[in-house]
Amino acid sequence: QSDNSDKSSAESDSETEVEQVSVYHKLLATLKTSPESESEEEEEDENESEAEESETEMDGEGSQETREADGGGEDRNDVTEQEEGTTDTAEQTLSQEQADGIDTSCDPSHGVIEEFTDVKHESEFSLETNFMEEESGDCNADERDGNPFKQHMDKELEEKDVEKLSTLPKTSSQSQWPRLGQVTFTSTLEKPKTLKADKEVDVKQLYLHKPLESTWPKVNKQFLSSVNKPSDAFFTPLQRELFCIMNTYRDLFYPERSALTNGEEIRHAYCLHALNHVLKANSQVLSNNAKKRNQKPGTDNDDHRDQGLTRPKVLMIVPFRECALRIVHIFISLLEVNDKRKIDVSNKKRFKGEFGSDPEEKPPNLKRPEDYEAVFAGNIDDHFRIGIAILQKSMRLYAPFYSSDIIIASPLGMRTVIGAEGEKKRDFDFLSSIEILIIDQADIYLMQNWEHVLHLMKHINLLPLDSHGVDFSRVRMLNLNNWCRYYRQTLLFSALQDPQVNSVFNKHCFNYMGQVAIRNVPLSGSISHVVVQLPHVFRRLEAESLTSVIDTRFQFFIDKVLPEYRDAIMSHTLIYIPSYFDYVRLRNYFKKEELNFTHICEYTKKAGVCRARRFFLKGEKQFLLFTERFHFYKRYTIKGIRNLIFYELPTYSHFYSEICNMMKATDNGVDATWTCTVLYSKYDAQKLAAVVGIERAAQMLQSKKNVHLFVTGES
């Protein structure tokens, strides 16, 4: 499905405004190229002469793949200085986006499609006009004492509690859990206490909504091994500990999610929690509908406050359409009690067409690391949003947001509907009563546009600007008091600990139940996976503050590091640059100094990449400026590296060993002449520990001297 299916606001299918999308879409487009063009690129990796031929073809054919950047320059950032100042928020119309090769596989005509919302099933899925089916008995089960949902949502905070949450510092305590490791619990209202992991879980004590008790074991069976104890037949050890935290309605930050290993079992665990929450909330509303129907006229009962100011309760942020597809499949599986009792899913075929992928799209001969294949599996379009309504035994996909229980979206999908101040068409009222926010694979948003995540966090749980037809007699007092943020549970999953991700958890989570973060330290760093014999020189720079470190690093590099590499004998030097801003700054400096260099970033056209790689391999260009985002999205092997400079430590620690190991691809290189220099400051503590290990990092941060390490290849 082309991204112009997301052209309208979520609750209307008639809007025609043009949306703004990030340029890095164009980079994603090259991941979906034809087998022929990709195989040419791979052959270039093997044979330099074929690269020239491939380059000539690509320069001449003017295909979609080579039109990744506007203008005819090698790099889109050669066009204007204004564009150099942006990361990935340059604006393109959706029609131009199509011309640049964005996936339009679900639209045979490649024409403009309005964003689809299902208005046909509105009455069937209305919470106001439906009642609990008598035979279900689900609501009675949810009234049991100890039900975490009721305990959390029925808790009445006082003004003084809210004031404490807003002003007082949090207290923390730490404990060691068998599977999660070091667990840190912080809270403002509760005194420090040690959280203990449940050794065994009785599924009855989890207070799952009725159908989930029977469907969850079947759905989760794929992750359970035969060695699981009978008492532990429902969860893996990781799922058990994570779900026990989720089920207490505390915020959770788990920074060890891996697309290769535990990603899917984590996804299943949070889907169970989200669906359990929605089913309980909706059954409470339907049950109260029946009570109000049987109530004598004129009777005023305040016990029926069971709703928010708007209907959406759960917001799930995921990076790609494939992730949304998997989540919906899990929901359907959890709702189907058996093969005979299939649930009715509206618009399922459309959903599969727009969120699924064509297996033939992927070239069969590409060789990429396993983690790359896992992250970029399926439909990797990152501009989408979809509302889901669930009512008893039915599910409605493409529900208008104000009729949805669950919203699944990408950060960009949210950004384009929330809009910016001053825009005529913008809407964020539907975020006012979100009770569970799930942000999965947060590390990927660092490679997309982190500003979209921050923009979302600023617009969640605000008082709506319009009433949207709500019955105020049914709205909970916590929503009327604008205290929803203090009840919202945030579940944050990432593959790494990063200051920006940590900041969202620390500064945007106000849950009165407190926060739980997993804080394990890496014992051995990724440097142990370097297989080439290589001296590593870690050069420490002194910065007065976090805000000054960017300028300090640049000055340190041009004054102390670069002069050592200007000599022609130090040819074949690759400079790895995580920040796009730093890349632009260095590129401009190299141009000004008339240094012999070439450059590759996430916006460089395919022919430009091919040309730069060939120049660097042959030694015609002494320096190669190379961005982290390009490596993240492409993972090409760069041949000819003899000297390596990490301008800053990589975001993903395994990129350090990957880049170092590229040196072995140089056939005529002499081991003794290879060098690796790394710039770091005291503000890089987490990244440094992930590369060299916690003990060595601690020593390096205490010492003011440069550190020389030699990796033998067997470390």
UniProtKB/TrEMBL annotation:
Give the source's domain of life in one word: Eukaryota
Region span, Disordered: 1-124
Compositionally skewed regions (Polar residues) per UniProt: 87-98
Which ranges carry the UTP25 NTP hydrolase-like domain? 249-516
Output compositional bias ranges, type Acidic residues: 37-62
What are the entry keywords? Developmental protein, Nucleus, Phosphoprotein
Question: What cellular component terms from Gene Ontology apply here?
Answer: small-subunit processome
Query: Where's the UTP25 C-terminal domain?
Result: 526-710
Annotated InterPro entries: P-loop_NTPase, UTP25, UTP25_C, UTP25_NTPase-like
A GO MF annotation of the entry reads: rRNA binding
Predominant location of this chain?
nucleus
Q: Where is the composition biased (Basic and acidic residues)?
A: 1-10, 64-79
Q: Which Pfam families match?
A: Utp25_C, UTP25_NTPase-like
Q: Which GO terms describe its biological process?
A: maturation of SSU-rRNA from tricistronic rRNA transcript (SSU-rRNA, 5.8S rRNA, LSU-rRNA)
Location(s) in or outside the cell: Nucleus, Nucleolus
**Would I find Iron among this entry's keywords?**
no
Q: Subunit arrangement?
A: Interacts with CAPN3; the interaction is required for CAPN3 translocation to the nucleolus.
**Which family, according to the similarity comment?**
Belongs to the UTP25 family.
Q: What does this protein do?
A: Component of the ribosomal small subunit processome for the biogenesis of ribosomes, functions in pre-ribosomal RNA (pre-rRNA) processing. Essential for embryonic development in part through the regulation of p53 pathway. Controls the expansion growth of digestive organs and liver. Also involved in the sympathetic neuronal development. Mediates, with CAPN3, the proteasome-independent degradation of p53/TP53.
The protein's name: U3 small nucleolar RNA-associated protein 25 homolog
